[in-house]
Structure formats: C-alpha cells, structure tokens
Design brief:
Blueprint: E1 12-16, H1 30-39, H2 48-58, E2 65-69, H3 79-88, E3 92-97, H4 105-108, E4 117-122, H5 128-135, H6 140-153, E5 157-163, H7 172-182, E6 186-190, H8 199-205, H9 213-226, E7 230-233, H10 244-247, E8 258-259, H11 264-267, H12 276-283, H13 304-310, H14 320-335
Parallel strand pairs: 1-2, 1-8, 2-3, 3-4, 4-5, 5-6, 6-7
Length: about 325
C-alpha cells in the first residue's frame, strides 16, 4: 500500500553567481571549490552579462523563479542591476544572503517598491558568540540581525536559514524561537554538506544525526502548534521516527532546483540543466535496508560523506504499520 506519491519537477533556476563572500563559515561547502578555482587561476565569479544571459534563457520556459546565490551576492557591484532586471522579467527572485551588507539601510532602498523578492538569510545561532564563531567574522551576528530588521521594515518576505554544526546543534530550537521573534516568515533547518572537507574540518563541523533528534522534534512541534512554516533539509525521516510534524516538513524532494554550472557558460542553459535523479546517487547514499522504509521513495538519504565517516547504523527503517497507527491516533483525537 502506498501512502505518499511524489511527482518530480521544478520551476526554479538556481544561479550561482560566484565565490566572493565576507564570511568564512566553518560549514561552507563552497570554500573548497573556491580554493580550487583560485589554485587553477580560474575566474571565480560570473560576469554581469553572463548572469543576464541566464535570466534571459529562463524566459519563455516553465521557470518562474530564480535563486541568486554565491558566494555572497549582495557584495557584487551589479547586485541592484541583477535584481531589478530579473523582476522586470516577471520572475520571483530568491536571494540567499548572510545579510551583512543589507544591515545598511541604503543598501535596501532600491528594493522597497520591487515585488516578488524573497530573502533567505543565514542565521546560525541565537547569539553573537555562537554565530560569529561559525562565520569566523566578529560582528557578523549583529549585522545579520540588523539586515533582517531592515528587510522587515520594507515588508519583504524573509526566511531564516540555520545550517547545523557541532557549534550550534544544541541551540537549534532556541535559534528558531529567536528567528520567529525577529519577524521572519519561515525557517529552513539544513544539515551541512561536507563535500571535500578535510578530516580535521569534518570532525570539527559535522554532528551525528542522533544528537539532533530532540531539537528537531521541538522545532517541528513548535512549527505545527504556532503555524510557523519550517522545513528540514537532508535529515532522513528515520531520525525522528515518531514525529508526523517532522515528516510533513521534510523538504528534500521539494528542492529540485535547476542549476547553472561552469559548463552552462559554454553550452547554454537549456543544454546544461542537471537531472537530479542522476546527480543524487553521486552525492547522497542509502543503505541496503532503506527499501523497507515507508518513506523510501521520498527520502534521499544522508550525504555520502556522512555515511563514509559514520556508517548506516543510525538509519532504521520506519514501518508502514507504525505510520498508519500514528495517523489513526491523530484521527481519533481530531474526532474527539
């Protein structure tokens, strides 16, 4: 018996504009790539016209949203031009940012009357001590908080993004409450992608999943009770085997964004949209028992490097009977 069915597809284009950033986050998956580009004397950032071309390629397709990410896109001299141009094309623009540049009100002014903007602001802790230790930039917490306040003042949609690490995993729920109190519209809780991390950095950054269970449950239950939109990324369903609130907020299969790669500059966007079905098995990994889990068709499994370091012992299949039993209890409570 099938409880959930999934249909793949995407209307989002993820544009990675480059590798310039004013934070040095310990969990950053981009930094090893940037170092390789610098080592090979390659160009680290796309030119303005290259990004404009990508936006133009999206026009006339099923794509109706773009994500501008990097690096830190707000540091670019053409940031205003790119955002304004994308909006003029009728696209919704999602801006992934650490927010520090937007702590200055003058940097936000041009956006006040632009519609269709959504900001995903990296907020990794409820206080400066932990957040700044993660970004490795003193004062970054205060600037990020000021940015959220500035964006809220001009009525922009704001999502707060927490990347989990050993430095903040005990404070995830506290960070969620802090973000809500700042006035953000939604929350994203993301497990780190430790691709190409050295053994030393991996040990410093990546916690085991079982350590997260309590904090994840607290956030999921709070989200449900307070109607505060929250999603979890790359946290397998079996980490919280009794939480329907968590299951319903697992977003791995919702984020199938199309993405530009270095080849897209040469081949053209339409020829270089990756197929997540082909890419996922190279980046994530599932165990031999995963097929027994009721969520097998929905769950993508953990990042491959996680399994290489920690193995599969944490991942215990969830039975369909257990899920049905839980749903029956929910239904009975609702009737009463």
């Amino acid at each position: 018996m099938t409880i959930w069915e999934y249909m793949r597809g995407s209307d989002v284009l993820d544009i990675k504009v480059g590798y310039l950033c004013n934070n040095r986050c310990i969990h950053c998956v981009v930094d090893p790539v940037r170092q390789g580009i610098v080592y090979n004397n390659e160009r680290p950032n796309l030119k303005t016209e290259e990004i404009i071309n990508l936006i133009n390629e999206a026009e006339g397709t099923s794509i109706n949203s773009i994500v501008l990410t990097g690096g830190e896109v707000t540091l670019r001299e053409d940031f205003e031009k790119l955002v304004t141009y994308a909006v003029s094309k009728g696209l919704k623009v999602n801006i992934q940012t650490n927010g520090r540049r937007l702590s200055q009100k003058k940097s936000c002014g041009f956006m006040e009357n632009l519609s269709g903007l959504h900001f995903i602001v990296a907020l990794h802790a409820p206080n400066a001590e932990i957040h700044d230790a993660i970004t490795q930039e003193k004062g970054s917490f205060q600037e990020t908080v000021h940015a959220i306040n500035n964006l809220r003042d001009i009525n922009k949609e704001i999502g707060a993004k927490i990347v989990i690490s050993k430095l903040n995993y005990k404070y995830l729920f506290e960070t969620a409450l802090f973000a809500r109190d700042l006035g953000v519209n939604e929350l994203y809780v993301v497990f780190p992608h430790a691709l190409d991390f050295s053994e030393k950095i991996f040990e410093k950054v990546v916690p085991k999943y079982y350590l997260l269970k309590n904090e994840i449950n607290l956030i999921a239950n709070f989200s449900e009770q307070e109607h505060f939109p929250t999603s979890f990324e790359t946290i397998p369903y079996c980490i919280c085997p009794d939480s329907q609130a968590f299951w319903s907020r697992n977003c791995d299969l919702m984020s199938k964004a199309r993405e530009n790669s270095s080849k897209s500059m040469k081949l053209g966007l339409k020829k270089d949209l990756f197929n997540w079905e082909e890419l996922r098995p190279k980046m994530k990994e599932k165990g031999t028992n995963c097929y027994k889990c009721v969520f097998n068709l929905l769950c993508e499994g953990p990042w491959r490097e996680y399994v290489q370091n920690f193995g599969f012992s944490e991942f215990v299949p969830i039975s369909e009977d257990k899920v049905l039993e839980y749903l029956k209890i929910i239904e009975m409570v609702a009737i009463k």
